[in-house]
Specification:
This protein is mainly α and 425 residues long. 66% of the residues lie in helices and 1% in strands. The longest helix is centred in the C-terminal third of the chain and has 28 residues.
Length: 425
């Protein structure tokens, strides 16, 4: 079969698989869904970034699901085409990336009115646009890249780490040139970072709720951690260490509710009620700063925490943590084990380092971004770790796949879908 026929046929088949995985299935809403449906630029916000913007413009849940499907198909198709056109094995590369993009661990989230589906898609767009802008830099490709970085970096608060990685090289160049190498792209990225920081600060209600879950999950259950936090200012109360469940919102005392400002649609951990006003004030004023100090002074404990979650989050054995009624999909096993993908990624990075230094820098930035987001997510989440790691799990496999393609021999000529041939750039 000619490449000009194979490419559109494979793309169409992947799109059909993704559509039928969600077509006609019940759409899932959860207590925190409502937080994504309203966007505010100023004042308190329930959720930050582009997803509330999109959901506030698209009011129908079926239309939101359709949008998530279409954007997902577009993102995975774009990165598959980019990599296939530079490989000596275009059909294999295209097929493999498209299969990765329709694996159950990716497409099942299209049925949820939450951040997971779009979070994965924005990550794929960011990877594709970065590859594209490196190969052909123009006002259009740079603009698309900036939009993709904005969408990806502001999907969740922890994704702001991506902006820190992206801005590292321009910042070093700016300092080295004593301010002479400033440009509009860097200025826009700094603007995005400032907007993200302001949005995260306005998102204090969700941040506070997350910290209570971290206390319940990590601190109260461990004698050494509990003692350390107690010695560093955390107020304690009778029955505090037994507060491991959740209450109803109406059970939260009004004086505590006035301090923690419970996010819309969320139920309070029992620790909020039992800890009372004194703990609530400490959590809002000193909680995250104290926890950051603990992480910095206990690296072995933090590493143990991350490694204990890798199998459950990067290669989740099932989907019980977020049950959805998807239609027929390809086998879950094709997603592969995270250990295998890590070995492929590291080995490919070594090869690319010697063959293509420019591409190596890009891949290293991908890896640092992904590792940082995963690490922060696992250390700052008290519940639903598999759900919070879905973007990292998909990113690990995509980055490893891109690295492997770049490590393999490149095509002498690039084939377009129409069968014509262009010289590689």
């Amino acid at each position: 079969m000619r490449t000009s026929v194979f490419f559109p046929l494979a793309i169409a088949l992947a799109a059909i698989i993704r559509v039928f995985a969600s077509l006609g299935q019940p759409i899932a809403r959860f207590p925190d869904t409502i937080g994504y449906e309203f966007f505010r630029l100023f004042g308190p916000v329930n959720r930050i970034g582009p997803i509330p913007i999109l959901y506030s413009l698209i009011h129908s849940d079926p239309a939101r699901v359709a949008t998530q499907i279409l954007l997902g198909v577009a993102a995975w198709t774009w990165v598959a085409l980019l990599m296939a056109r530079t490989s000596q094995y275009p059909r294999i590369v295209l097929t493999f990336i498209l299969l990765l993009g329709v694996s159950p661990q990716v497409v099942r989230y299209d049925l949820t009115i939450l951040s997971e589906s779009l979070g994965i898609t924005f990550m794929v767009f960011a990877v594709a646009s970065t590859i594209n802008v490196q190969r052909q830099r123009s006002p259009l490709t740079v603009s698309i890249w900036l939009v993709s970085i904005f969408s990806c970096a502001l999907t969740r608060p922890v994704h702001l780490w991506i902006l820190a990685v992206v801005l590292a090289a321009p910042f070093i160049a700016l300092v080295a040139s004593r301010g002479k190498r400033a440009n509009l792209s860097t200025a826009f990225l700094v603007f995005i970072l400032l907007v993200g920081v302001l949005q995260v600060r306005a998102n204090s209600s969700t941040s506070t709720l997350n910290f209570y879950t971290v206390l319940q999950d990590r601190v109260l259950r461990n004698d050494e951690r509990f003692l350390w936090f107690q010695q560093h200012g955390m107020p304690t109360s009778v029955g505090m260490r037994d507060a491991l469940g959740y209450d109803f919102a109406e059970q939260l005392p009004s004086d505590v509710a006035a301090i923690v400002d419970l996010p819309t649609g969320q139920q309070p951990p029992s620790l909020m009620r039992i800890g009372g006003v004194e703990l609530a004030r400490w959590v809002t004023e000193h909680g995250w700063k104290t926890y950051a100090r603990f992480i910095g002074t206990h690296p072995q404990d933090s590493l143990s925490r991350i490694t204990s979650l890798t199998n459950a989050t990067l290669s989740p054995p099932n989907d019980d943590f977020l049950p959805l009624d998807n239609g027929p999909m390809i086998p879950r096993v094709l997603f592969g084990a995270w250990e295998l993908w890590s070995l492929i990624g590291i080995g490919s990075l070594v090869v690319v380092f010697f063959k293509k230094p420019k591409e190596f820098t890009m891949l290293l930035a991908f890896a640092i971004s992904g590792l940082g987001v995963y690490t922060i997510s696992m250390l700052s989440s008290g519940i639903e770790h598999p759900r919070h790691a879905v973007t990292s799990a998909a990113a690990l496999r995509l980055i490893a796949c891109v690295s492997a393609v770049l490590a393999l021999p490149c095509a002498r000529q690039k084939a377009n879908i129409d069968g014509s041939v262009v010289e590689p750039s």
